[in-house]
Design brief:
alpha/beta; Rossmann fold; Arc Repressor Mutant, subunit A; 5-stranded parallel beta sheet; 44% helix
Length: 242
């Protein structure tokens, strides 16, 4: 990840340190390298800022008046997985392990070289962005030229949106959660919390087939499983005509 990429995505960093000199030095250095930067002199101020702004990474000093950095990290980890880099003047390996056990992504001791800090921040954000992408991919089910996003419940054919009604979205999401697995009407009804009538299931399946199958009489993707019900077959037919 180079500086041009960082400037493009404009990551926002919050520096939490009671040493004003360090805060201003890091703020200027990181801004010169393409980041947006905010700063706070203690955890109380940081919490107020975080209520109104979203950040991509926190740089937290451990030794601060009032709540220390480790306790602050332990508190925010209850509800927030934001990447964090801990700063401390303590060089004891046990202190480093405490930070990592509390959920820190990296750890640096003072004094430090700003360029090394920059590289560590870039590596953390690179890993975090990659993990977000993987997480997003897990929410997508692909079959043939189609992609269904389980989170947004949107269907695409070769990246072109395919309109689905609300009932069609719910039904397709049900199949996509467990692709290549047969579902009976009862299974579908239970998965949808009993909010879809049996007749409505049959109608929705027929409508979905009209939108995804070449020939509804011989479905490739939303197949009938004799004696059970239906399943979404995600193995792409290499000879299909799409």
């Amino acid at each position: 990840m180079n500086n041009l990429v960082l400037k493009k995505y404009n990551f926002h960093i919050l520096i939490i340190d009671d040493d004003q000199k360090i805060r201003l030095l890091l703020k200027q250095f990181l801004e010169n390298n393409g980041f947006m930067v905010s700063d706070a002199e203690n955890t109380d101020e940081a919490k107020k800022i975080m209520k109104s702004l979203n950040f991509d990474l926190l740089v937290i000093d451990i030794m601060m008046p009032g709540q220390n950095g480790l306790d602050f990290l332990k508190e925010i980890r209850l509800t927030n997985s934001i990447p964090t880099l801990m700063l401390t003047a303590m060089s004891n390996p046990e202190d480093r392990l405490d930070g990592l056990e509390y959920g820190a992504d990296d750890y640096m001791t003072k004094p430090f070289e700003p360029r090394e800090l920059l590289l560590r921040i870039q590596n953390i954000l690179k890993r975090f962005t990659k993990n977000l992408k993987k997480s997003g991919e897990k929410q997508k089910t692909r079959f043939g030229p189609f992609t269904f996003n389980q989170k947004t419940q949107n269907l695409y054919k070769n990246d072109i949106p395919v309109h689905l009604t609300t009932s069609e979205q719910k039904l397709l999401k049900c199949f996509c959660k467990s692709p290549n697995t047969p579902f009976s009407r009862e299974d579908i009804n239970n998965s949808l919390g009993g909010n879809m009538e049996i007749r409505s299931i049959d109608v929705a399946i027929a409508r979905i087939r009209r939108k995804i199958e070449i020939d509804q009489r011989y479905p490739i993707y939303l197949q009938t499983v004799r004696g059970i019900g239906w399943m979404l077959q995600t193995h792409e037919d290499k000879n299909d005509d799409y």
